[in-house]
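Journal club prep, notes for RB
We'll compare a predicted complex against what the paper describes. Inputs for the guanosine-5'-triphosphate case:
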Amino acid sequence: MAEGQIRQSLSGFYDVMTDSGRLVRTRARGNFRNRKITPLVGDRVVIDAPNDHEGYILEVKPRRNSLVRPPVANVDQAIVATAVRQPAFSTNLLDRQLLALEIADIEPVIYLTKTDLLTAAEQTEFAGIAAAYRKIGYQVVYTAEPFSAVALKEVDDLLTGKVSVIMGQTGAGKSTLLNHVAPDLKLATGEISAALNRGKHTTRRVQLLAVAGGLIADTPGFSSYDTFSMDARSLGKYFREFRRASVDCRFRGCVHVNEPGCAVKALVESGDILQSRYDNYLQLYQTLKNQKPNYRKSEK
Ligand SMILES: Nc1nc2c(ncn2[C@@H]2O[C@H](COP(=O)(O)OP(=O)(O)OP(=O)(O)O)[C@@H](O)[C@H]2O)c(=O)[nH]1
Ligand SMILES: [Zn+2]
């Protein structure tokens, strides 16, 4: 018996890196499969491993969190690649990605890409946006020169010692960034999604790659198409600055829409909360309110 971490899943096989540094190809044992737990890349597991080619997973340790796209467990952070241009920057898309990560309980890191396409005036504008999101409580990586030594060192430091996933809409620059961090990967820029993310019926391989002293999933996460299903009244707790402010709302359970004495609205008016965050919140709130209850995908 040995303990380790699943590093790759492919066609029912799970490659486990044991704590003593052996890479063992395993399968989930029959009686284990009946328990309806599907092992995920990133899972801590106990395996029976007579040799490196035919091990069995005996137990999956409890997960800290997990994502559906990519199917990875125990993620420390998600790098949200967000283009400032091409495709155009959208706070709406960014806020929805942050929301998805807040729900999954995974720490987001906002990574602004293609900053070399900005004029000096636009750079000042985006520095302001970066500062505003930092104030909310998010780490934001914003460098004027995308792949300079300084920028790449910052990415390296970000990845060291952590399990990361990268997400962001198509064309945001995910593969380009990964290729700079780990030139050995040679991911096809502009093709990674087509090859790995979108094939519905192909066998999907998911891998955690050792990069910069950390691990990063080779399959990008969701982009803009995911929908959320939850009680609209819960939405505010996933907007960090709203959650902090709401202790000062006059009514408990204030949803920050029409209530008098709402501390969130007061902070929007004073400019302490971004108007765009509030607008995106209202739009999501209305969408959730109009949604038919979906009991299959309930809020966790
Ligand atoms: N000017 C500029 N172009 C960039 C930068 N990063 C990426 N690009 C370009 O943007 C295009 C898309 O980059 P990709 O890395 O393929 O984007 P992706 O997020 O992996 O896209 P998908 O695979 O479709 O999900 C490519 O033509 C890149 O060369 C950057 O920092 N500056
Ligand atoms: Zn309120």
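Talking point for the session: DSSP finds nine helices and eleven strands in the chain.
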